[in-house]
Amino acid sequence: MNSRKTLFITGVSSGLGNALAQEALAAGHRVIGTVRSEAALQAFQALSADRAHGVILDVTDFTRIDSVVAAIEASHGPVDVLVNNAGYGHEGIFEESPLAQMRHQLEVNVFGAVAVTKAFVPYFRKRRAGHILNITSMGGTITMPGIAYYCASKFALEGISDTLSQELRPFNIFVTAVAPGSFRTDWAGRSMQRTPRSIADYDASFDPVRKAREEKNGKQLGNPQKAAQAMLQVIASPTPPAHLLLGSDALSLVRDKLNRAASEIDQWEALTRSTDG
Ligand code: NAP
Description:
It comes from Pseudomonas karstica. This protein has nine helices and nine strands.
C-alpha cells in the first residue's frame, strides 16, 4: 500500500492543524487544508508548490460542505485521512454564559466535525478505506470549572467518534479520537471566547482559574510539532487506536479521573445492582 497519503485537515491556519499539515508535507503526504481567509490560504499553499492545497471553508457553513468535499474528491482525491481539527474553546462560568455561546461552541466543535465527516463517509465506505481523526481534548473526559460548554462539545465528539468507529469498522475505516492535553497553540489566546464576569459570588473561585489560563498561554507543556508526529504515527499504523491521549498532563489527569470513577462505581455497586428485576 502507498505510504504517501492525502489528508484533509480542517483549520490549518495555526496550532495543531498547521503543525500536522507541515509535518505531513515534510513526510511526503499531500494536504488539503481548510482556512478562513485569503491570507491564510496563501500562507498555507506557500508550504508546498504542488502538495498543499487550501480551501476557504468555515465548518459551520453547512450548506457548502457537501459540495466542497465533492469538488475536493473529484479534483484532488481520493482523500485517505480526514482530520477534524477546527475548533475553539469557550471559557466562562456556566451561570454567566449565554445559551447562544453554547450553541456556537457546539456548532463549530461538534456539528462542524459531524457535517464534514458525513460528507466524507460515503466516499470512504465505497472505497472500503479511510481514517478519520477527531481532535477532541482531555476535556472530553475530564472537566474543569469555566469550560462547561467546551467540555460538552468534546464529550460529544468523543461519544460520536467512539460510536462511529464501531459502525465503520466493517468497512475498513478507522476512527481515532485524539485527545490533547495543553498545547502551545492559539487556543487559549486569540481563539478563545471568554464570557465577561458578572456574578461576584464566583470571583474567589473562578478569577484565579481564568488568570492562570491566561498566564499559561504560550507556555503550555505540549509541543504541536510533536503532537503532529504522533498523529502521523497513528495514521501509519495498521491498527490505530480508537482513543489516543497526547501529553503527560492529559495522561495523568485522565488516568486519575478514570481511577476515581472506577472507585466510585465500586463504592456504590450495591445500590447500582439493587434496581434489577
Ligand atoms: P488554534 O491555534 O486556535 O487553531 C484552531 C484552528 O481552528 C484555526 O485554524 C482556526 O481558524 C480553526 N477554526 C476555528 N473555528 C473554525 C470554524 N468555525 N471553521 C473553520 N475553522 C475554524 O488552536 P488549536 O489548539 O490548534 O486547536 C485545534 C483543535 O485542538 C481544536 O479542536 C481544539 O479544541 C483542540 N485542542 C487544543 C488543545 C490545546 O491545548 N491547544 C487541547 C485540546 C484540544 P482561524 O485561524 O480562521 O481562526
